Structures are given as structure tokens and as C-alpha cells.
């Protein structure tokens, strides 16, 4: 009898104990889930350094009253539009120097476009993020044709071989896929921001930390004065790049864009997916990835816009609003350099 009671007590005790252990395990797995959600962020997340200055650092007093009056320097969603005269280079350099940033920069030179590399790289070394860390990723089908260009301090160049393609449109659009993979597989912890630039271009003036932002678009040099219905958006509803006549903010160039790794990853992934769906439906947007980029920027507003100073059409062309040309397309004969019409 006594033994029986003892056994019953023992069994009951065991049940209570295993119940307690179960609850405890369950609680700790709940806790773990919550911790994961809070602390494990995407590995490309932009670090938030704040815009810090220091006591005793002297620069010109910014004005509440004086600024550019001939151009808009802010969008209707309150993103800055960067023009000469809207920032203080001394101050902004000082702020960003503290952040120890790396700017990944991609450029593609396939087929005859390798001829643009010398001017592009040499002029970039004079004007592009001078004094900041830059890592160029150059994609080419002919690594042997890449000219020797002396890199400035903390600027490095990595050359990647990619297969050549028969259509210039495929080369241009294919950049989105390559950029997506580069960011996803290689740039986490390696860079803070990325810019993606056309190679048939040259730098003539400063392009530096004033251009940094979460998501950055450059206003196309041919359309900054045009009403939205004249923008060369894709107008066929069959394409995923379609934008109706009554919509649109600005017309952005496909020749330069950038931002944080996270935002540019999302941009490139979205454009790549949309282009694949278009291709499966046998349609190619009128201005290729530039059309998809414009669609993306319409519904994912850029946090900073660069004026056409950051991609001008031709160094010899002028416009009263353009006080300085920083980066410009070079004249090229498409029939001479492209693999197809
Ligand atoms: C001013 C502007 O907005 N330019 C855009 C425009 O024409 P573009 O005439 O500027 O296009 P493009 O001929 O410069 O091609 C775009 C880029 O693809 C690369 N490439 C192209 C062909 C080739 O054989 N080898 C090669 O490497 C190269 O990096 C070049 O800069 O439309 C293109 C897509 O329709 C892109 O959106 C361009 O950025
Ligand atoms: Mn170009």
C-alpha cells in the first residue's frame, strides 16, 4: 500500500516536472523568435551614423533666406535636389569623413565600349569621391583591354569578366541582374553605398558625398524642362514599365543611379524581375531598363535627386540653370560602337 502511494506520487511529480520543462522550453523558443526579429537585420542595412559636426569646426553660416531661386531644390515629397549652390562642400565633406564610408561603383564596358574606359577612369580619379574610399567593379568581356590607370589613395579597381552579348539592349538591361547578384553575394560589409554609371561618360567636376542617400536618381538631361506627358516613359500597358500620361514626377536617366545597398538591391531585383516578365510576354520597354527604373522611382520615391549637373548631355551644350557640369555623356557614334542597330 505504502509502496503504491509512493509510486503514484512519483508519477504525479514526474508529470508536473515534464510540464514545467515543456513550458520553459516553449517560452524560451518564443523569446528567441522575438530576439531574432529585433536584432537580425538584413546584412546590407545602412549604418546610421547621423550627420555629426564638431565644436570649433568653422564654415559659412547657412542661410534661411538665400538659396537657388532659378531651380527647385526640393521635391514635393521633400527630397533634396542637388544643384551647385545648395550644399557646402567643406561642411558636407567634414560630416561624411567621420563615417569611414566605402562607395562601390559599377561600370560596364563590353565590346567596343572598352574605348571609353581610359577617359572615364582617369577623369573619375580627378573628381569622383576624392579622399573617400571607392571600390570600382568593372565588368567587361575583355579584361586585357582595360587600360592601366593610376588609382588615387583608397581607390581600388576590381575587374570581372562577363560573357559578351549580341545586342546592346541586352548588355544595358543585363546590368540589373549583375548588380543584384553583386550586392547580394559580395557587398555586405564591403561597402555602404553603391553607384552604377554608364561608361560612355566623363567627369568634369566634383561628384562626392553630397550625392549620398538611401535611394538616389539622376534627372535626365534632355527632360528636365519637359511636362510629364512628353517624358519617354513606356506607354504600352502590355509592358510592366507602363506609366499613364497623367502620372510621373521626373524623367530619370538609366545612366546613373545609386543609394544604399539595401535600396539598390531592391531596385535592381524589381527591375530584373519586371524585365523578365516583359521578355516572357515578348515585349521590351521602349528605353529598356531605363523605362523600368522610371517606373520603380515613381512608386518608390528617391530620397535624393541629382540635378542634370550629374549627367549632362554634352560638355559643349549649355543651359542657364547648369552652373557646373560634373559628369557628362561623351559624343559617340552609336553605329560605330554598338554591336547591333
Ligand atoms: C542618357 C541616358 O539616359 N542613357 C541611357 C540610354 O542610352 P545610351 O545611349 O546612353 O546607352 P549606351 O549605349 O551608353 O548603353 C548603356 C551602357 O551599357 C554598356 N554597353 C552598352 C553596349 C555595348 O556594346 N557595350 C557596353 O558596355 C555601357 O556601360 C553603356 O554605357 O538608354 C540605355 C538603355 O536603353 C541606358 O538606360 C542608358 O543609360
Ligand atoms: Mn550611355
TrEMBL record:
Transmembrane feature ranges: 6-23
Similarity remark: Belongs to the glycosyltransferase 6 family.
The keyword Cell inner membrane belongs to this UniProt entry's keyword annotation: no
UniProtKB keywords: Glycosyltransferase, Membrane, Transferase, Transmembrane, Transmembrane helix
Cofactors that this protein relies on: Mn(2+)
Pfam families per record: Glyco_transf_6 (PF03414)
Gene3D superfamilies: Spore Coat Polysaccharide Biosynthesis Protein SpsA, Chain A
Chief subcellular location: membrane
Name listed for the protein in its UniProt record: Globoside alpha-1,3-N-acetylgalactosaminyltransferase 1-like
Membrane topology of the entry: Single-pass type II membrane protein
Subcellular location: Membrane
Domain of life of the native organism: Eukaryota
InterPro entries hit by this protein: Glyco_trans_6, Nucleotide-diphossugar_trans
First and last residue of the signal peptide: none
